[in-house]
Amino acid sequence: MFESTKRVRVIFEEAGIPVSSWARANGFSTGLVYQVLEGKRKCLRGQSHQIAVALGLKTGLASSLEQLNERLHREE
């Protein structure tokens, strides 16, 4: 994931958009976004997982609890 985080940082630099602005616009904790980009989080669940998916660092579903419940009940 290290190469991917470098790529994401370059994209932010080229766009001239601060990571903090992206975090706020997407409803994420700025500190947590930086922790994900620095590789300090495993991004297995919760907001760190959602951040990694939103940044394209990992594949997966960025779901709310409501969406997860709907999916669980639909796949029974």
Q: Care to describe what's here?
A:
The protein has helices at residues 2-15, 19-25, 30-37, 46-54, 65-74. With 76 residues, it is an all-alpha fold. It has one domain (2-74). It is elongated. 14% of the residues are buried. The model has no long low-confidence stretch (mean pLDDT 88).
Could you give a short description of this structure?
With 76 residues, the protein is an all-alpha fold. It has helices at 2-15, 19-25, 30-37, 46-54, 65-74.
Describe the sheet with the most strands: none
Give the DSSP E fraction (strand runs of 2 or more residues).
Answer: under 5%
Order of H and E elements: HHHHH
Structural class: mainly alpha
> Could you say which overall geometry the principal axes of the C-alpha atoms support?
elongated
For the residues shown, what is the average pLDDT? 88
This entry's quaternary arrangement is single chain
Helix content: 55-70%
The counted number of beta strands is 0
Low-confidence parts lasting 5 or more residues at pLDDT below 50?
none
Q: From the alpha carbons, calculate the radius of gyration and give it in angstroms.
A: 14 Å
Distance between the termini: 33 Å
| Tally of DSSP helical segments | 5
**What count of structural domains?**
1
Please write out the topology:
Layout: H1 2-15, H2 19-25, H3 30-37, H4 46-54, H5 65-74
Helix pairs in contact: 2-3, 3-4
Features:
mainly alpha, 76 residues, single chain
